[in-house]
Every structure is written in structure tokens, then in C-alpha cells.
Amino acid sequence: MNEQRRQILEMLAEGRITAAEAERLIIALERQQPGTPPGAEPRPRPRPKYLRVLVDAPDGAGEDGGSRANMRIPLQLLRAGVRLTSLIPPQAVTKVNAELSRSGVEFDLADLKPQHLEELIDHLDDVVIDIDDPEAKVQVFCE
């Protein structure tokens, strides 16, 4: 076992990081080629396949007194949804945009293109959102 992996497991055992955080760190280590010197170009990242949303909230609803959610959403489903927007009639797009605007969401459904989703997915691969408060923890990331 290499030193970095051992350190990650020690942090997990000490409770300094969660299992999900440890998993992400180990995956990041695995992306590096063995024996690659520091500063060398790492091998290309694999294309993410899932959007993961983890929720841990103590609200008395779960079996241990908290509610938990572990959602793994296939990015292929999002890609298919974007392609389906091209089938929406222009009149319906206008109505959807008007309702979105009325709700405070300034977004034009006609501008949603597959390449925009791919750009978003590329950026999500580098983003981890952790929300900690005394009541809940939410994590969103690509894997």
C-alpha cells in the first residue's frame, strides 16, 4: 500500500474525513499513473458516468434517527433529456420559458444544446459541493 493511500485510510479511521471523501481521494490517486514523477502530465481522466448526490440529515425520519439519501444519477439520462428538448414545439418552449421567468428562473430552453451539457459535466468533474451545518450535510459530485 502506498503512503498516500495509507494516510487517506488513517484520516478516515480517525473520523477526519467521510467515507465518500476518502473514496474520492483514492480515485484521484488511482488516476495518477504509477511511477509518474510529480509535475508530469497525468493520464487523461475517464469520462464521468454519474452525478452523485449524498444527503445526511438528522431529522428523526431514518432508522437511526436521521434521513439519508444516496442518489447516483446516470449522466446519460441528462444527455438524453437535452437531446429531447429539440423535439419540443416552439409554442411549448415559449410557454415553458415564460413560466420559468415568472418563477424567477431566467433561462431560455431553446438555448439548451448538448455541447452545453458536456461543458457543464466537464466542470462538474472538478467541483465538489459540501454543505455542512448542524442539521445536514449534502455532497454533490461527478464520478
UniProtKB/TrEMBL annotation:
Annotated stretches, region: Disordered: 28-47
InterPro entries (UniProt xref): YvlB/LiaX_N
Taxonomy, superkingdom: Bacteria
Pfam families: SHOCT-like_DUF2089-C
Domain YvlB/LiaX N-terminal: 3-30
The name this protein goes by in its record: YvlB/LiaX N-terminal domain-containing protein
Source species: Streptomyces harbinensis
